Amino acid sequence: MSGPSPTPAHEPTRQRLLRAARQALHVLAVELGTPTEPGTPLFGSVQNPWLRRLPYLVAFGFAVSLLPTTITILSHDYGLGGGLAGALATAQTAPLLLAVTRPLQAWWVIFTADILCALALTGADGVAGRAWPWPPMVIVGYLALMVALSLRERSRTLIAVWLTTGVAGVLFEPRTPDRSDGTWVLLFVLTGVVLMMGATLRERGDAQRKLIEQETISEAERARRTLLEERTRIARELHDVVAHHMSVITVQADSAPYRLSGLPREAEEEFGSIAATARESLAEMRRLLGVLRSEETERQGGPEKAPQPGIGMLPKLVEGTVRAGVPVELSLPEDRVPLEPAVDLSAYRIVQEALANVVRHAPGARTRVSVTTAADGSRLTVLVVNSPPPAPSAPLETTGTGHGLVGMRERVRLVDGSLDTGPLPDGGFRVAAQLPLSPPPAPAAPLSPKDAGSV
After folding, report:
1. pLDDT 10s digits, 33-43
2. Of the candidates 346, 257, 357, which has an alpha carbon nearest to the alpha carbon of residue 308?
3. In the prediction, which pLDDT does 143 show?
4. For the whole model, what pTM was predicted?
5. pLDDT tens-digit readout, 267-323
6. CA distances in angstroms from 320 to 82, 303, 316, 396, listed in the order given
7. Could you read off the pLDDT of 342-364 as tens digits, one per residue?
8. Which secondary structure element, helix H or strand E, spans residue 430, and what is its range?
9. Opening angle at CA 398, ends 392 and 401, nearest 5
């Protein structure tokens, strides 16, 4: 009578276990057969030439010291033949030189030589009472190899090497238990410790390098952004000149012969020359404006044509800031105040930059924006004050470039105003700008002899 056949409930479980085992072996084979950056020496990216040579010197020192020691111990202590001891010792130590550039390939050679050495020692006469399956010099060389391996290979490969080392020791244990003194456990534990420490150091070094690279990229991006902002500011100022002053000069020169009667022929020609020169200057400045446009504006198909913002658009700006999570209170003059375009734009940009700083450095902080005019109508006061951020919140940026405050001061200086910024005693921040409501008076032009005579 045949034995009971496996039930259908047991068959799927067995298949799953076999499939999982095959997958694990496949992953193990892939990890052990796929080296990382083969041919690249350890410390190859270090600038110091002595540090670049250090791995070669260490590997050479281990190989030179371990080779004669291993031959002597295998032949005299363990009783192996001289030729076999020399071949095994060479295979166990010489690949340490290869570990500087190809540690995984060196591991295959050394690990195979260690297995063959353990098998050869099973028939030797001097094994009794000595370390087996891994003699002391084998452990030293193997741990030196693990250092090179941990500094190069990825974590999954290191785990595969560690598990393979442990499995080899476990398989040797029942073969000659009377001659084993547990060195496979020692090698298994020490291998895990060395691989873990080396992998930690490698990952820390990689993280530091990536951080330095990111800081370099961020600094370059900040410099590029500052340059683009400065170009945009200059372009807007040139736009004002192009659209207003140069156009006025051209129109006045063209219309002078029609507005002023009795002009001599030479004067009419002079006005025509002035108009032609003004038109040429207008075209040149427009070309310069096109060069100074930002890349984003250029992708959109031309210079900015939208009107410049002013304090009338502050409610919309505040609404967007509130949506970003910053509670803002806005106070504007009840009556509409006629402002010069430069003052109107500067007031808007100062509030915009101040609110942006609150969002970046004090998210969630209560903020008050106030725009008032002096009683005598001589100046406009822009005040942005924020309280300390709520305790649970953390700033989006802990450091700044300072370009925002520099831009505020530059805008205030251009309209002949004043700016006061600084932290408050309670931990908040204050931005206060005084902007003139009328442009500074222009210097009086000297009177011509004709005008002086008519006074």
Report:
1. 777 777 778 87
2. 346
3. 94
4. 0.48
5. 888 888 887 887 777 777 666 666 555 444 544 444 444 567 788 889 988 887 887
6. 85, 25, 6, 17
7. 888 889 889 988 888 887 778 78
8. strand 429-436
9. 150
Contact 361, 419 (CB under 8 A): no
Of all helices (H) and strands (E), which one includes residue 373?
A: strand 367-373
Q: Decide: 380 and 339 in contact? Cβ < 8 Å.
A: yes
Dihedral, CA of residue 290, residue 292, residue 295 and residue 300, to nearest 10:
-30
**Residue 419 token pair:** 């700016």
Q: Which residues of 22-59 are buried (b: 16+ CB within 10 A; e: fewer)?
A: eeeeeebeebbeebeeeeebbeeeeeeeeeeeebeebb
168-178 burial, b for 16+ CB within 10 Å, e for fewer? bbeebeeeeee
CA end-to-end distance (rounded Å), the chain: 141
Phi, psi at 444, each rounded to 5°: -70, 135
* Contact (Cβ atoms closer than 8 angstroms) between residue 412 and residue 350: yes
Among the residue ranges 98-102, 106-110, 245-249, 403-407, the one predicted with the least confidence is 245-249
Rounded-to-integer distance, Cα 234 and Cα 244, Å: 15
Task: For residues 198 and 191, give the distance between their C-alpha atoms in angstroms, rounded to a whole number.
Answer: 11
The pLDDT score that the predictor gives to residue 19 is: 74
Provide the 10 A C-beta neighbour count for residue 197. Answer: 13
